[in-house]
Design brief:
Chain A is of the alpha/beta class. The first copy, chain A, has ten helices and ten strands. Chains A and B meet through strand 5, helix 6 and helix 7 of A and strand 5, helix 6 and helix 7 of B.
């Protein structure tokens, strides 16, 4: 497995792979890799001939007061995981290489970035779309892999790829969960033991939403309310949102509808840690 | 010469050319082609193996009250010119193909887009960087060619390419002028006979700036003042700006300096027509 820190070096490897007719897959990450990330690399390994992982804790997608400085950096372990999952090349740039001092061109997403995470974390998604455009520019992938865990993010990236005619196909991979259902996240390691003990409630709330939608006896608003109640039961999770929305537009569903696809989206604060999770629903 | 209206068709031709190891050049235009555009295509022909021209009057770079609706559309003549200049493929998309109804991801330039044209035409450069990113996404060029005539534009596009790590090299080609020095522009055809008669004054003002800088006897501010006086002589040109600036940052030079590179930039209103022009200077 090759490890490179400079864009030109990555481009040169990728171009050589393409000259050989190989399909290039890219898995952008912020490191602190867990089984969720590994599942993305493994999927890229199955779908592509040359797999590029990127590890970069992107400062521009963190807001003031967010966890940029304490975000876990575990480069050596990350590289071991990339190797085991089948990456051919890992790009680990320094921030100064990614952002020159006077860099100020940005990619700004639209409506989809104004709600949910976008409303709570202003500027976050612009940081994401900008860095992902840059990573696509450097790694020139045919296919890029993102986790469903960051549902709004993959939706915004798909929209960006469409709107900017970027020559890459986006694949969204399923959420990987711990045994109690907690979605894997680099931020789970912030949780204290007590916090970790109730974090599984997030998945329980999503399971409740799936069950209620399946039965078809509830309106979307009622499903959202029941999710919120389940989250609030322990008294420890502070709900930022718990909604049932259109999975293409993220507009909240209000009325009772049959046979529609939906996504249940949750964000909670648990102690000093923010956690998000989601599940696709189908109203029966 | 191939003419295509759909992005997928263009991409397929370009990919085939690349598979054959050909270097791809792109010349983005809004049509109404003149010898300036042709010189870009001819340069692309010399530098590249597969030359793609694009013709698209991009609505998002026109402000309210600007000349979008009257902008000249001369597709058949444009295609003849592209053929004569050596294009292999011309992309002539409909606006509905370029912008889906709910498209809202944009590329936003920074500081460079806040001055001069950017100050007078708010949103203009964001329209430009967004459509150029899209055209690069569709035509995947190794090299793209822009005219020095739109000096600020080529600078902003270079910055965008750097900031977003786009895999394209930008080449800026010299301004092509009429016999009296008027820079070729699709908008010159708006001019009445009387207006056309004084339009050459713009170039005269730039020549005066070059002469004064060469002599090294003037400060940048004095050169700018003399340009403005030359422009105002006829009483017909309404000066929007006439400045001498740093050619990398577009910051206006104020003091007397020796041996520095500069760019003299002019925008005037002449009747109902806006004209811009520029020249590189070196203070002797």
């Amino acid at each position: 497995m090759i490890v490179e820190q400079l864009p030109e070096a990555v481009r040169s490897h990728v171009r050589e792979a393409k000259r050989q007719g190989r399909i290039v897959g890219c898995v952008p990450t912020m490191g602190a890799l867990h089984d969720g990330h590994c599942s993305l690399i493994e999927q890229a390994r199955r779908d592509c001939d040359f797999v590029v992982g990127t590890i970069f804790v992107n400062p521009t997608q963190f807001g003031p007061g967010e966890d940029f400085s304490r975000y876990p950096r575990t480069l050596e372990a990350d590289l071991d995981r990339c190797r085991a999952a089948g990456a051919d090349l890992v790009f680990t740039p320094a921030a100064s290489v990614m952002y020159q001092d006077d860099a100020d061109t940005v990619v700004v997403p639209g409506q989809l970035a104004t709600v949910l995470e976008g409303a709570i974390r202003p500027g976050h998604f612009s940081g994401v779309t900008t860095v992902v455009t840059k990573l696509f520019g450097i790694t020139e992938p045919d296919v890029a892999f993102f986790g469903q865990k960051d549902f709004q993010q993959q939706l915004i990236i798909r929209r960006m790829v469409r709107d900017l005619n970027l020559a890459v196909r986006i694949v969204t991979c399923p959420i990987i969960r711990e045994s109690d259902g907690l979605a894997m996240s680099s931020r789970n390691r912030y949780l204290t033991e007590t916090e970790r003990a109730v974090a599984g409630d997030i998945h329980q709330a999503l399971r409740e939403a799936i069950r209620l939608a399946d039965c078809g006896e509830c309106s979307a608003a009622e499903v959202a309310l029941q999710m919120r109640r389940r989250l609030e039961r322990s008294g420890q999770l502070q709900v930022q949102y718990a909604v049932v929305a259109n999975p293409e537009t993220l507009e909240e569903y209000q009325t009772e509808e049959r046979g529609i696809e939906a996504v249940a989206l949750i964000a909670v604060q648990l102690g000093s840690t923010r956690l998000i999770d989601n599940a696709l629903l189908r109203f029966g």
